[in-house]
Amino acid sequence: MNLNDYFDPIDMDIELTESNDVKDQIFSFVKIHSKEHTIRSIEGFELAILGVVNKHSGKEEESLIGLNEIRKYFYQLTGFSKNVKIYDLGNLKSGNTPNDLVIGLRDVIVELFSLNIIPIIIGDSEDILYPNYMAYQKFDKEINLVSIDSKIRITEDRKKSYKSSLWKIIVENNDSLFNFYNIGYQTHFVSSKIIKYLADQLHFAYRLGYIRNNLKEVEPVFRDADLIGLNISSIRQSDAFGQSNASPNGYYGEEICQLARYAGMSSKLSSFGIFDYNQQFDINLQTAHLIAQIMWYFVDGFLNKINEYPLETEGEYKKFIVNINNAENELIFYKSEKTNRWWVEVPSIKKNFTKQFLISCTYDDYLEAGNGDIPQKWLKAFQKLN
Q: Which residues span the domain enclosing 68?
């Protein structure tokens, strides 16, 4: 694949800050696709930045300006304590029709997957999520999808012939979806019907207030995630003005950066996206700056991730067996002695063979099982596997 056929080069001037030595800033080591430096081999790179703007939306010029502002802030930030190979591929060409962008993005992500390169996608619309999901279908793989959003956008508008990405993924084309998690929805934006529908489909939705008081619950979810999409509308307006439908409530900037770091630390994650930035509403480019910092914390997490999986990787793990229902059943937990992270085993009995699966969990899940209650994440996984 010749990626120059898929991406427009970046055209912008970067004013590096004087607070740090130039060689210490991210700009000094990122490979950037420009008119002077076209894309050559990307093998050996670990992360790739992709800008995605839909020219058919009618706000292409503003969106492209916004992506450049995000990049400027990102490149000005100080570098990392470890080496990381990042390639900024530029902005995806929209093509002649909306479907051209969908197919183009899907094919690019498939190429990146085949090279073990994680895409960091920045774009103006959450519609990007669906072609991202389609890339996994090329590998015939079931995935866990995490959406960080104040809303759960499972919507269809027949009059406008519009279906949201989540509608296409969860309702229409869910063969490759194992678990869906919403992280941080706000009850006043989401109908009880949507929450019930997700529960009936054995998916998960966590309210903002719950996450804020139980941030540690998010790390195991992210540890098992393949695809994470972060919507800017999940952040309160005072911390992120650059959004079309801003709300006074939402995550603080510090919290969203912590979530991004958790995402980067996942050894399973293969795609990360930041969506719905609208430069038109941004004040002092505060949101562009925040997105740059979100990207920074994601990369920092990526550089500090630890590959652990008790059934596959070597390490010191303690095994705990918890009897449930008067010893008729048992749950098997594993704890890493190195990181204090937890997993629980979920058996799968199909076609006369037994296979073991592990899902990430917390110490609280272990305590819950010890009290005789089966954790919901285990129960839903067991129902899906059997």
A: 3-303
